[in-house]
Amino acid sequence: MVNAHDKELSQLSLAELWQLFPIILEEYNPEYPRWYEDESRALTAGLDQAGLGKALARMNHVGSTAIPGLVSKPTVDILLEVHQNPGRISEETHFQGNGHQQPGCIGLDRFRPALESLGWTLMSEQRDNPVQPGDEKNRGEGTEESGGNAPGEGEAPGDARGNPSGSDTGPRMVFNKGYTPQGYAPRVFHLHLRYLGDWNELYFRDYLRVHPDIARRYGDLKRSLLAEFRHNRDGYTEAKTEFIQTHTRRALEEYSGRYSSPGLYLNK
């Protein structure tokens, strides 16, 4: 009988993937910011070396590991936003924030070879599905807050499933690092590559950072779900959706427009 550990991840069934990569919750690790800083520096240097440095617009540590004191899966989520037209960056100082590709702009797939050379694995790719500017659905929510599925699934780790505003629009690519045939590596990362936009993850993160009571409730919810959904990432995701939607809406009201300029809250 072939052991799951002897197979490539792409050869594993969904059941095998969920067994190999169960939901694991750990107390906050004060080393998470350093994990993010190390990886963000490597990303910046690697993309610059590949001639893509001018396209980088904003990079942020998002997800539960970006919230001090919050229990989480030990996975650092990075939101990397890029300019659609690096030659006209000055014109993006004030933008619509809808994250959709405009005609004649560079495609996100231009970044794939450079990211793969840095050890990242592409897990999912979503093409553009335009919406009208100003439509709330232009925002997406992903990262650990949306459950983060294991490699090989239709939705990859950190992809936009169960997002608060119901958004599944706008092109995006999701990469990961740290998933091996033997299980999790010591450091695990999800990279969310998108065009510059006014993304919900940033608001949800900021809201929980300044509302520790809400963060504690979120942590309690996660713990309560662990026994039932340890090997069911879809169920874990679905069970958190209402909480995330509620508090993301409040965050969007409290911090309206905070991320509508690319220079704000850079590399946090």
UniProtKB/TrEMBL annotation:
Superkingdom per UniProt: Bacteria
Biased amino acid composition, Low complexity: 146-162
Signal sequence coordinates: none
Region entry Disordered, spans: 122-178
InterPro entries xrefs: GrpB/CoaE (IPR007344), NT_sf (IPR043519)
Record SUPFAM superfamilies: Nucleotidyltransferase (SSF81301)
One protein family per Pfam: GrpB
Record-given protein name: GrpB family protein
Native species: Spirochaeta lutea
